[in-house]
Amino acid sequence: MQAAPKRTIRIATRKSALALWQAEYVKAKLLEHHDSIVVELVPMSTQGDRILDTPLAKIGGKGLFIKELEVAMLEGRADIAVHSMKDVPVEFPEGFGLHAICERENPFDAFVSNHFDDLDALPEGAVVGTSSLRRQCQIRKHRPDLKIKDLRGNVNTRLAKLDAGEYDAIILASAGLIRLGMEERIKTGLPASVSLPAVGQGAVGIECRNDDAELIALLQALNHDETQTRVSAERAMNERLEGGCQVPIGSFATLDGDSITLTGMVGQPDGSTLLFASATGPTKNAKSIGVEVAEALLEQGAGEILSALYN
Ligand SMILES: NCc1[nH]cc(CCC(=O)O)c1CC(=O)O
């Protein structure tokens, strides 16, 4: 008797070291859980995810742009895309969804420096690299004397700029450094009380077409329920605030048995004002707790801070 043909799952991935690590991680997890599949990586040059000028680009509806990885999935060149949850927009193009969220890695920001052990050890006026408004406003609040200098590029580029002496310290996500085998670069983790993490930070999510039921069933084995609960509360907060990817918003949920606590932060980029709100409730209400925290922030004036940034 002939064995049933194995299903091949192709992972569309960007080519950065972190994107490839995440794709390999999902490949290994899929193979660990399923015997009868083959998994391939389909690395793609996504040129900063340019908006595609093709009829397919209009499928997104609602003004959402379909990106290169999604075009590959629509055209049948790939089956899934793997994302850092903190870079995933609130809404997906029509026909696509998030069908698994893997177990969260360390969610905190990392203090990285070649000469200093932590934020408080930096001399007055020291130069700290980050391009994140969320990190910037929290660091400015904590240490108003520090100079924040723009820092872009992938993780290796950012570390090279630190090593070249352009900064006294830089702030990166711990998860990215740990995944790339560079945990020893972390001088110290910044606790939530100093730098509340970004929505979904440290978690990897898997996107695929909503009409591929067989694939969606296979992906369920990779879903980590606790992570999914936490990230869904964090994302619900962001959605209610209409926060994009480049905003001074922090959102971090923790679990204690069947109870979830979510803390949210919206900050003035100069660090002059940081608004905080928290709520606790049963995990089954994760999303409504996210909305509750967002509304508490809006009541304190988060809407004014955010709309000033969009203009
Ligand atoms: N914005 C870039 C980005 N997107 C995901 C990570 C790695 C951490 C994660 O998966 O949350 C990073 C690097 C960083 O912020 O330092």
From TrEMBL:
Start and end residues of each Porphobilinogen deaminase N-terminal domain: 9-215
Cofactor note: Binds 1 dipyrromethane group covalently.
Catalytic activity: 4 porphobilinogen + H2O = hydroxymethylbilane + 4 NH4(+)
Domain of life: Bacteria
Enzyme class, first EC level, given as a word: transferase
PROSITE patterns for the chain: PORPHOBILINOGEN_DEAM (PS00533)
Gene3D superfamilies tied to this protein: Periplasmic binding protein-like II, Porphobilinogen deaminase, C-terminal domain
Modified residue annotations for S-(dipyrrolylmethanemethyl)cysteine: 245
Assembly mode: Monomer.
Protein name listed in UniProt: Porphobilinogen deaminase
Source organism: Alteromonas stellipolaris
